[in-house]
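Re: the 191-residue chain
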Amino acid sequence: MSATYTFDVFSSLDGYGAAGGDWTGYWGKQGPELLDHRLAVYDEEQRMVFGATTLRMFADMIATSTEESEVRDPWVTRMWRMPATVVSTTLEEPLDWPNATVVRGDAVDVVARLKEESDVPLRSHGSLSMNRALMAAGLVDRVQVTLFPVITGRTGLDPIFRGADDFDLELLEHRTLDGSIQELTYRPTLH
């Protein structure tokens, strides 16, 4: 049986994964309901899968943050401690990420093998280009988009689906958190 792979991403309404300028993490919109829900999601046993760029970004954010900063939200700390596979041709172990292993090779081949061998679900938060390639290869079972109530037309960074193939999406789950944040979980099918 194949392990389920979830591509988990935060997005502005206009499809950006981050913003520059004076926007803070989560666009400053995170509230207790979102944070409690994220903690519950990351309480489940699973293996994280990252590309090198995302792992570097997360590791740098954690290394330069303080215990009191929003970067150290309990769910992020839990994600940081989970077993992780990092698909990279440039990173060398040891990493600034406990329980992380670097696997060299093409992400499609690595994740196809992980899906067959893993006893636990797989999850990737971010890693946009890697996950676009995995979607095109039919390896993403669930796309979980947490949609924040912002438009980042001038300051948006990292367009989530730029260059992606066309997909039909079947809505599997949805919820509203803190009265304005939408979490939408879809099953993607190449159109």
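The helical segments are 32-41, 52-63, 74-81, 107-117, 128-136.
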